[in-house]
Each structure stands twice: as structure tokens, then as C-alpha cells.
Amino acid sequence: MTATNLTAETAPEDLTEEWCTLLASCERSVPFQHPAFQAAWADNFGARSTYHVVTVHEDGRLLALAPFTRAGDRLRLGGDPEIFDYMDIAVAADADDSAYDGLLNALAAQPWRELVLWGLTEGCRTLRVLPELARRRGWTAEEDFEAVCPRVALPADWETYLAGLSKKDRHELRRKMRRFQEAGAGMEVYRLSTPDEVRAGLDDFLHLHTISRHDKREFMTPQMEAFFRRMAVDLAAHGLVRLFFVELDGKRVAGLLAFDTGTELLLYNSGYDPAYSYASVGLVSKALTLQAAIAEGKAVFDFMRGAEPYKYDMGATDLEVHTLTITRPAPP
Description:
13 strands; elongated; single chain; 30% strand; Aminopeptidase; 2 domains
């Protein structure tokens, strides 16, 4: 087994094929770990110069990979919790724990005092394995709560989903969906998924995003918009993006950008026309997207970070996200 540090000059794109193969072999992987997402973030937010990728191979096969950024004597998993909902080290499901040890061997050769692994879901393999391996080296490992990602386990059909809500929440959702449908003579929900479709739809999505709320308008800076445009199209090329629109009378009144992992639909961001706020367009558009996920046979609809009450009204329960901080003693 060989552990390798790839320098900051090595781009995520140079590893795309085997990186993607590795992600497909993990217990669970998310688009935030994808080289296209990582490259879009690093380029648009100036992280290339501090970006490092650590890999572990065995007999020519990539078994583990982790991107890091450096700030002084701290190494941190690549990304930003303001933009990434999850992160993790990518390790093949059939690899034994020595893959993690190989990763620590590579990291041990780097000059750092603190290693910050953020965005880790509770109970994930990294949290199960890495703390003990670090302690065996005389390093400390501390796990802290970071955030919650409310998620809905999806049943086979919409009526079963509704039946699983409380009586009050079921009544309210039905009432709001009925009122929304009555706001126009015709309603349509559809998704865009190819790179060309997503590219063409982004203008409308970004417009709906920025007009829907003041905080979203402030969030979508020119730098953030450039990131969204590149990230969405590049991930669409790998089949990971679903851009949903809700139309009333031929007008796009809501847009939702989601990631499709095959078994899960992850709602990344959304926007709507505030002229239709009276008809609960924000909530209803999310319900319609969840309904589409059920129709597609998804197992989970993930609202991702944030404990907004509407998520729980729609049946979500929390998945905790934790940070693992590993510290090693200063050299004598």
C-alpha cells in the first residue's frame, strides 16, 4: 500500500476518472466530494495555492483520497461549510482500516499541528475508525457537534408519505398545495439535468433565488454566482444535478437546485417569485420536488443544513454533522 501527497500544483481534474471510481465504491458519497465540485470551489474562491490532495493506492487501485487546504499549521478538509453541507474522506467500502492508516502516514510527513475534518455525518466510517488510529500515534482526537441536516425517509408513494405526517401537518400541506394550484389555470413541474439544459436554466434559477429573500440576494455575490454556474454545469456532466422548475400558466415561479446520488435527492438551494408568496410558493415548490423524488423511487429527500421549522413539518428528522479535530504534539 502506498500513500502519496499530491502537491498544490496537482489539479482535481487530473484525478477525475479514478476519483469518481473511488466515490462510486464508498459506503456513501456526496457531490461535495466530487472533483468537479472541489475544482469549482478552489478556483472561484482562491484556494488553489493552498490545495493538497492525499491519496492511498494498493496495487495501482485508489483506495482512499482526501483534499485539504492549508492555513499556517492547520490542515482542513477542502471546502467551506457555508457552501458545502457535507464532507468526508473518500475510502472504498471494501478497503480495510489500513487505508486510513495509510492516509495518516502521508499526513504525518506534512508540517501541521491541527487536522480538521469537518462535515462528517454521525456514525460515518471516518468517525468510527480514525480517532483510535490517531490516538495510537500519540495524537489527540476530539469530536464536536457541527450542524444538523434534516432528512425525510421516503416511502413508495405520495399518499403513504402524507399518511406519515401528523394530522395538522398533513392538513396544512394539502391546503397549501391546493391553494397554490388554484393560483393559476395550469401548473407544471419539471426538471433539467443535462449540462446544456442546466446551463440554459441557470439564469432563471439565479433570478428567482435573488428576488426571493434579502439574505439570498446578499449571498449570491458575483463570485458566488460564478461558482454556481460552473459547479452546476460541471456536475450535470456527471449526472449529479437536477434543476427543478415549477410553472404557473407558463411562468417559472420557483426553481430548486438539487443533487441526485441515485438513492437520495439532496436539495441544495432554491428561489421563488415573491409575488406568489400568498400561495406559499416556497414551501409548495419543495413539496412538489419531494413528490417528484418519491415518483423517481428515491429512498431519501435531504433538506441539508439548517433547522428551519418547515422541514420538520414535512416529516424530516435530523442527521447530525460533526467535526473531528486531530492534534499532534509540537516537535521537540
